[in-house]
Amino acid sequence: MSRIATVICAAVAVAAGGYWLSLSNSTPAYSLIGSAEAQEADLDTSTVVDMVQGAEDAPVEIIEYASYTCPHCANFHTGAYKQLKKDFIDTGKVKFTYREVYFDRYGLWASMVARCAGPEKFFGITDLIYQGQSEWSRAGGPNEIVDELRKIGRLAGIENDQLEACLQDGTRAQTLVAWYQENAERDGIEATPSFIVNGEKVDNQSYEDFKKLIEDELGS
C-alpha cells in the first residue's frame, strides 16, 4: 500500500520521435473522470495488472510505455508493432508488456475502456483505440470524446453498464495514475513511445533498427 499525496499532471509537448513528459503537482488527471470524485487515499498499485503478450519465458522482454493520445504511439501500433508481433511475440522470442502513460484525461479514459473487459480483450481494444485515434481524440469536447470511447468499448462487446462502471470508478482511476507515476519514475520514462529491452531503455526507432536490436539480444 502506498499513500499518494501528489500525482503526475502531464503537460504535453511534441518532440522529435515522441511525446515528452513534464511532471508537476497541478490538477491530477483522475480528478477529471466523469462525475467521480477521486480523493487522496491509500492506493494499492499492485492491483493494476500488467498487460502481456508472448511467452512468459521468452529470452527477450520488451516493455513499451505509450499514451493512447500520442500520435507516435499510434504510428508504432498500426505499423511496426504488427511486424514485431508476427516476427517475435507470436514465435515465443519476445515477451511484450504494454504500460500506459497518462498525458491527459482522454488517455486515462481510453485506458479505463481498454482495461474494462480484462486482459483477454485488452490488446484488441487497444488496436481499435489506436486505429481510431485521429477520430475519437478530435471529436470535440470531453463529452464527445468519451462518447466515442464508449462506442469503441461497445464495439469490443462491453455492455453499457459495465462500461459506465469502469469509466466512473474514481478510485481505479486514481490507482492507475499512481501506478503510472511509480513506473515512470522507476524506469526514467520521459517520452512516448519508450521501450525497455531486457532492462535497457530504448527510444522509438524504425522497425529495422528494432529488429536488429532484438536479434542482437537473441544472439542471432
UniProtKB/TrEMBL annotation:
Q: Which domain of life is it from?
A: Bacteria
User: What family is this protein classified in?
Assistant: Belongs to the thioredoxin family. DsbA subfamily.
Entry function: May be required for disulfide bond formation in some proteins.
Which Pfam families does the annotation name? Thioredoxin_4 (PF13462)
UniProt-listed InterPro entries: Thioredoxin-like_fold (IPR012336), Thioredoxin-like_sf (IPR036249), Thioredoxin_domain (IPR013766)
Would you tell me the protein name for this molecule?
A: DsbA family protein
Query: What Gene3D superfamilies has UniProt attached to this entry?
Result: Glutaredoxin
- The Thioredoxin domain extends over 21-219
Q: Which PANTHER family does the record match to this protein?
A: GLUTATHIONE S-TRANSFERASE KAPPA, THIOREDOXIN-LIKE REDUCTASE RV2466C
